[in-house]
Amino acid sequence: MNDNLLAVDRLRLEVPAGRGQWLTLVDDVSLAIAPGEAVGLVGESGSGKSMTARSVLRLTPPGARLTGSVTFAGTPVLTLGARELRALRARRIAMVFQDPRAHINPVRSIGDFLTEAMVTHLAVPAERARAKAVRLLADVGITDGERRMRQYPHELSGGLLQRVMIASVLAMEPDLVLADEPTTALDVTTQSEVMAVLDELRRDRGMAMLLITHDIELAAATCDRIGVMYAGRIVEVQSAEALTASPRHPYTGGLLASRPGIDRVVRPLPVIPGRAVAAFEAGDGCAFAPRCQVRTDRCETARPPLTAVGTARVACIRAEEP
């Protein structure tokens, strides 16, 4: 029996590039999330993290082509009709976007934003929906909820708006939250506060979460397991504790080594040479090979599959070496 809430198998996302050409953004991605589990996807910009999360809800660019399978609670998402897909987005899976100002209607009040879905999809009477919204604002650390409900998005800071976005997600009591870099636009102190709120509420309500972030330390502090993406593929999956202590893929090791830390002084700070490539730029061999310090001739010609190495899964021909 499969106990996973979400199962993604060999997912591939391509977008049209004109003249019958297609560009691959996500390539052969497989991952699973159990009920109540938090899984992080980390990697540099362009690695395919956000597109993987958006593909779960089929929030893809116009004309995009999705292959593979996405199964949520036993339901194949990629074959759902329009009505069933709307119901899934409204009730079972919710998304916290990177920039709340781009996803909250600027001409409607915060109260309207928070209560609309409850009234429309849950048939909650307007007064009860409003009372619940005020309680949710308190849950995410926003005081004076009645006054905030009357305000408009331009009257709130980025941190407060992201808390409003989290409250809107909690209002529908979803089974799975897709958090797409929810703290990128915030200052460091506010980032910590917002993630603490999201993680605490997730645990209290037993929700599962897929966290998309470029911050490997944030993922390690928040998630049970972490997947590392490069060039549209997952190259390593481990528990958060094991991955930060003993990375098995050279790319993961490079990401961890390049973090600044308050407990050490390193000049200059180590960096991964070269630039990150998108999935459609990768050749036949390992996509990370041009930047890898331990590459061999085999890395240039054969792309390694994601293979079990102890408790980890790693896409590297040298993963089993000490």
- What is the structural class? alpha/beta
| Number of E-type strands | 12
What pattern of helices and strands is seen along the backbone?
A: EEEHEEHEHHHHEHEHEEHHEE
Task: Please state roughly what percent of the residues sit in beta strands, choosing from under 5%, 5-15%, 15-25%, 25-35%, 35-45% or over 45%.
Answer: 15-25%
Q: What oligomeric state do these chains adopt? A: single chain
Structural shape: globular
Order of adjacent strands in the largest pleated sheet: 6-7-8-3-9-10-12-11
Helix content: 25-40%
Q: Distance between the terminal alpha carbons, to the nearest Å?
A: 35 Å
Instruction: Provide a count of the helices.
Output: 10
Q: Overall mean pLDDT score?
A: 91
**Radius of gyration over alpha carbons?**
21 Å
Low-confidence segments, ≥5 residues, pLDDT <50? none
Describe the main β-sheet briefly.
Answer: 8 strands, mixed
SSE layout and pairings?
Layout: E1 6-18, E2 21-33, E3 38-42, H1 49-56, E4 65-72, E5 75-76, H2 82-92, E6 93-96, H3 110-121, H4 126-139, H5 145-150, H6 158-171, E7 176-180, H7 188-205, E8 208-213, H8 216-222, E9 225-230, E10 233-239, H9 240-245, H10 250-257, E11 307-309, E12 312-314
Parallel strand pairs: 3-8, 3-9, 6-7, 7-8
Antiparallel strand pairs: 1-2, 1-4, 4-5, 9-10, 10-12, 11-12
